[in-house]
Every structure is written in structure tokens, then in C-alpha cells.
Specification:
alpha/beta, Rossmann fold, GMP Synthetase, Chain A, domain 3, 2 domains, 19 strands
Length: about 450
């Protein structure tokens, strides 16, 4: 752990669960009072005793704030009814992920930023970042969403040199591959799907990314399945660490060397995992909806018992060791409703993506449902083969495995390496699943 950097942090990693409990007890009432000062919350929090908030029954009286409550709230009303504090204290705005309808912009004060930066900075220590000197290439978008520029700032605060590349929209992906080859960063930060995109471009350009300089890949902002993680690690020759965060709070947690879930910084927020139907707490390790109360990043936007829409499980312990083992392990359920229905058979997108990425000779793919000349629905799978593999044999293998696994006979087509990388260029997230019926 970088001890010199820890001295700059506004809150050290707690030593025990008792330390975390003491923080909760002290900050719970502050979070409540800040929320009650906002017009939006005033009626919602009426009748709750602020002196009894350590009592689970009293705390549970606070209504859960669902995303639907903000979805139809116009931005001007959000600023006037949800925002608290002095407008002169605002340092910057963090854009919401857009899941609440029209994206909202969350004011962040200087005090918020101290703990917001801390939440991102811990990602590196939790991962056990060692060696160096390090240099980082950041491929997260650098616009109005905070993740890219915040990571750049905390890396620089640790004395790490940063290439502020941004997404492919600001620095073309082919140029990013050239920069990685030339500048030789040891750390890459970006979305998992973009890591695959750059890896496919590198192979098409005959750059040996796996034999290059990058030792660590840090991802966040989208689900990362084990199959996608494995493929990134093969193609980059680097260890992948994932992070879990939300703009309503900050970077909520990251992985340690065990990679068995996210260590959630529970000294920065109260987390609850509740049954989606009853809103009662579930047993440790059971899946429920995640409810979050920020304890330090609530000076301007006092979220309290915010339901993020994530389905997760949380359990103390975990197999990792070190200072961050004091925090519980959160695992995301990664449930999705995305699927194709092809001739009566449901094909789940995330399961299909894992299936394809588990094949080492498949570099990338896209799946489409099309209508054939005979007016039959057909699953068309286009793929790019790894350099040196037998593409014809791989096509037959893909078709056979899909028929057995998904009970659908596909049309399989090989693409030249780099085709999908260019097709996906400019997309925020690679559109690998397209329903072409009726187009």
C-alpha cells in the first residue's frame, strides 16, 4: 500500500468493523439532517426521530428513494428542490448515468470532492498496485461524466504520469493503439468493451498487445463477466481489476487480489440489500436490491436510502487479505432482460456473449436476427478469428456448439480482422446484438 498517499487522504481505511459502526452512528444523523433540509425530502422524512436512527426499525421508516421518483423531475426542479447548500460552494457537476430519464447533473462541493476523489483513489491500493514507476493511459470518456477525469486526477495525485486519451470520440482508437505501443503505459483504464475493441484493432494492425507494456487493466461502468475478463486478460497480457460505482455516491468499491467481488468502502456509505418485494433485509449472501446512503458526498445532493436498481449480494469476509479485507464483498447479479426470440427459442444476450468470448480463437463477434428469403427467422453470427487459427474449422465449431447449447441453427460468417473494430468505432458500447427483423 502506498503509505505516503494515504497521509493525503481525508479518511484512513478503518481497522475494524467497530470503527465502521462508529462512523455510521455519527454520520447517519448528519445524512438525515442534510436530506431533511431539501424541499424534495421534507415531507418524505416527516415523523422520523433523528435521535433514534441507529435503531433499524426507525431507519427503515425512511422511504426508499426509487429512480422513478426522479425520472419525471425536470432538471430545473431537481436543482431547486433536491440541491442543498450554497451555490457558491459548487466545484463541479457530475452527470448521472441517464437511468433516471433525462440525465441530471449533480452539484459537487469542495467537501464532496475530497471524498469523491478518495473513493476513486482507493481502487489502486485495494488492487495492491505495486512496482513502478507507473504510467497510465485513460480511455474513459473525458466529457461531462466524471469517471474519466476523476481517475486522471487521482492517478496524478499518486505521482503517476497520465495520458488523457479519452474515448474513441476524442482520440481515434487507431491512434490510441499507436500511443499504447509508443508511450508504453503500465496501466490502462477504460470500459471492458472498449478494452476488447482496442485489442482487436491491435491484432488487425499486428501489434502484440499481450507482449506489450500494460500490466494492469482497470475497468468499470458496465458489467464484466468472467468470460469477458478472461478474454481481456488473454488479449492484453495483463491482470484485470473491476470497479463498482455510481454518480449518486462515488466509486463505491473495487477488487483486491482475490477477484471474488467488490470490496465496498462501507465507511463512506451505508449499504442495504433488501428483498425487492418486501423491502426487508435479505440474509447475508442472498440477492436483493441495493440501497445506498452516502455519508460524506452528500453536501449538495443528499441522497438517502437511494435504490440504485442493482441486484447484488453482500457478504462479510471474502478470501482476500490486507487492510481492505475489513470491508464486505459485493457481487453483482448481472441480471439482464436482453434476449432474442428466434423461432420460439429465447437466447439471452449476456449468456451468448459469455459463450462466444469463452472460445479463445474468437476475437470478436456480433449476433443478428434476420429474416431469410423463405421468411424464416435466422440467427446470424459474424465473427473474427484469432490470427493463426483455422477460421473454417472455427466456423463449423461455432455453429455446432450454438445448436447444442442454444437449440438454434445459426448462419455463421467469418469477417476480416478489424471489421468489427471499425464498425463499433464511435459507439459508446459495442452493439453486438441487433434485431434486423422488420428493417
Amino acid at each position: 500500500m502506498n503509505r505516503s498517499n494515504l497521509k493525503k487522504m481525508p479518511l484512513p481505511v478503518p481497522a475494524t468493523q467497530s470503527d465502521i459502526d462508529a462512523i455510521h452512528s455519527a454520520r447517519r444523523k448528519i445524512a438525515f439532517e442534510r436530506a431533511r433540509s431539501a424541499p424534495f425530502h421534507r415531507d418524505r422524512l416527516a415523523g422520523i426521530d433523528p435521535d433514534r436512527l441507529d435503531d433499524p426499525a426507525e431507519w427503515a421508516k425512511i422511504p426508499i428513494l426509487e429512480k422513478e421518483a426522479l425520472r419525471d423531475l425536470p432538471p430545473d426542479r431537481f436543482q431547486s428542490e433536491f440541491f442543498t447548500g450554497d451555490p457558491g460552494d459548487i466545484m463541479e457537476f457530475w452527470r448521472s448515468g441517464g437511468a433516471t430519464g433525462v440525465p441530471l447533473f449533480y452539484p459537487r462541493t469542495a467537501e464532496d470532492m475530497k471524498y469523491g476523489l478518495l473513493s476513486f483513489d482507493r481502487i489502486f491500493d485495494c488492487a495492491g498496485l505495486s512496482g513502478g514507476p507507473h504510467r497510465v493511459h485513460v480511455s474513459f470518456p473525458l466529457g461531462i461524466h466524471p469517471v474519466g477525469h476523476v481517475f486522471c486526477r487521482v492517478a496524478q495525485g499518486r505521482g503517476i504520469g497520465v495520458n488523457w486519451a479519452g474515448s474513441g470520440a476524442s482520440t481515434p482508437s487507431a491512434v490510441q493503439v499507436e500511443l499504447i505501443e509508443t508511450l508504453k503505459p503500465t496501466i490502462w483504464l477504460g470500459m471492458g468493451s472498449y478494452a476488447l475493441h482496442l485489442a482487436n484493432l491491435a491484432e488487425a494492425g499486428e501489434f502484440d498487445l499481450a507482449g506489450g507494456s500494460v500490466e494492469y487493466v482497470f475497468t468499470t461502468a458496465e458489467p464484466l463477466s468472467q468470460a469477458k475478463r478472461d478474454k481481456i486478460e488473454r488479449m492484453w497480457g495483463a491482470t484485470v481489476f473491476d470497479g463498482f460505482g455510481m454518480t449518486e455516491a462515488g466509486m463505491m468499491g473495487g477488487e483486491d487480489a482475490a477477484h471474488d467481488g467488490f470490496r465496498i468502502w462501507t465507511d463512506l456509505w451505508i449499504i442495504e440489500v433488501l428483498d425487492p418485494d418486501s423491502d426487508k433485509p435479505v440474509a447475508p449472501g442472498d440477492v436483493g436490491k441495493l440501497v445506498v446512503t452516502p455519508l460524506w458526498t452528500n453536501n449538495a445532493t443528499p441522497f438517502i436510502r437511494w435504490s440504485s436498481g442493482d441486484l447484488v449480494s453482500v457478504q462479510p469476509g471474502g478470501t482476500g487479505t490486507g487492510p481492505y479485507a475489513v470491508f464486505p464483498v459485493l457481487r453483482h447479479a448481472h441480471r439482464t432482460s436482453g434476449f432474442f426470440k428466434v423461432r420460439g427459442v429465447n437466447i439471452n444476450h449476456s449468456e451468448f456473449e459469455d459463450f462466444m468470448f469463452a472460445m479463445p480463437d474468437v476475437n470478436d463477434f456480433k449476433a443478428e436476427v434476420v429474416t431469410s428469403d423463405g421468411w424464416q427467422d435466422v440467427l446470424r453470427v459474424s465473427f473474427e478469428a484469432r490470427r493463426g487459427s483455422d477460421a473454417a474449422a472455427l466456423a463449423q465449431d461455432i455453429a455446432g456448439r450454438i445448436k447444442v447449447t442454444f437449440e438454434s441453427t445459426p448462419e455463421v460468417k467469418e469477417l476480416a480482422r478489424g471489421t468489427l473494430a471499425h464498425e463499433f468505432e464511435g459507439q459508446i458500447k459495442a452493439q453486438r446484438f441487433i434485431d434486423q427483423r422488420g428493417r
